[in-house]
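Hi all, posting the design record for the shared folder.

TITLE: backbone redesign
STEP: 1 of 1
STRUCTURE INPUT:
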């Protein structure tokens, strides 16, 4: 598998369908993807996994979504994992996503990670912003 390190994240170059960037596990304040551990919140795109500043819903900012808006191939949907339980997004975040024409679905982080994996395996243009679970 080809890999490039970029400032603020890792870009994974997919070589085959077996090398999809999928969530292998979560908990303990972070995530495991392709054998690597990532602490804190992350945003996942088909091109890579990137850390975000937010670790809880009250810390989530519009800037945490910027990589999705500027991706080579804009996702048709972003799944938002809000932690150990599903919580409603703050109005400013919902408005920001709507203004940028990005569909979204909110759910607890476990459900968002599983749904992201399924949609990636279906070759859908999907992204996920996942807040950590302890």
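Okay, here is what came back for every position:
SEQUENCE:
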């Amino acid at each position: 598998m080809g890999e490039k390190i970029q400032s603020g994240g890792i870009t994974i170059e997919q070589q085959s369908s077996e090398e999809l960037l999928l969530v292998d596990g979560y908990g303990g304040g972070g995530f495991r993807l392709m054998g690597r551990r990532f602490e804190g919140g992350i945003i996942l795109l088909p091109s890579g996994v990137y850390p975000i500043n937010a670790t809880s819903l009250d810390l989530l900012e519009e800037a945490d979504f910027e990589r999705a808006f500027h991706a080579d191939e804009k996702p048709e949907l972003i799944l938002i994992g809000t932690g150990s339980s599903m919580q409603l997004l703050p109005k400013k975040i919902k408005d920001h996503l709507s203004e940028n024409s990005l569909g979204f679905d909110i759910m607890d982080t476990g459900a968002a990670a599983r749904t992201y994996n399924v949609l990636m395996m279906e070759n859908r243009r999907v992204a996920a912003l996942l807040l950590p679970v302890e």
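COMMENT: Helices lie at 66-69, 91-99, 109-121.
Let me know if anyone wants the other runs.
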